[in-house]
Amino acid sequence: MSRDPIGRPMEILLVEDNRMDAHFAIRALAMANFQHRCTLVANGEEAMDYLRRRGIFVRAPRPDLVLLDLGLPKKDGREVLSEIRDDENLRELPVVVMTGSTDEADRAHMQMLDVESYLSKPVDLDKFLGIVRELKRFWLQGVILPVIE
């Protein structure tokens, strides 16, 4: 798939197994008021299949941002993040961790794996929107907007 950013929406992969938390994130993204497409997967194995375009995700677009829960079934978010950072095709993906974990060791480990941000649940809406807006500005630097004549 083309990575051509001309006039396309931002692709966001939301990796979250809790429906209420997923609903919160999707609504918050809608409030951020920018063009995006959000794909939801519910476990770490699906996330890696999506990112590596395997199985039912063979035609999945490459995300511009990954919103990642740590406490996931099948493969937890720590493993997913480690695999992303170990894969030369994925390591540059911006990742925002959203977790219920208050463990300082988790926070330190996530910082070592170069996450864009680490948000504790329940996620503060204003803080979440601020991070998304900042990442949107970073993403828009690489977007070429179509010329309107």
Task: Characterize the structure shown.
- The protein is an alpha/beta fold.
- 38% of the residues lie in helices and 17% in strands.
- It has helices spanning 19-31, 44-51, 77-86, 104-112, 125-140; strands at 10-15, 36-41, 65-68, 95-99, 117-120.
- A 5-stranded parallel sheet has the order 2-1-3-4-5, sandwiched between helices.
- The chain is globular.
- The two termini are 28 Å apart.
Largest sheet: 5 strands, parallel
Q: What overall geometry do the principal axes of the alpha carbons give? A: globular
Uncertain segments: 141-149
H/E element order:
EHEHEHEHEH
| Computed Rg | 15 Å
Number of helices: 5
- Mean pLDDT comes to 78
- How are the strands of the largest sheet arranged? 2-1-3-4-5
Overall helicity: 25-40%
Tell me what portion of residues adopts beta-strand conformation. 15-25%
Count of DSSP strands = 5
Structural class: alpha/beta
Termini separation comes to 28 Å
Write the layout of secondary structure elements.
Blueprint: E1 10-15, H1 19-31, E2 36-41, H2 44-51, E3 65-68, H3 77-86, E4 95-99, H4 104-112, E5 117-120, H5 125-140
Parallel strand pairs: 1-2, 1-3, 3-4, 4-5
Short description:
With 149 residues, this protein is an alpha/beta fold.
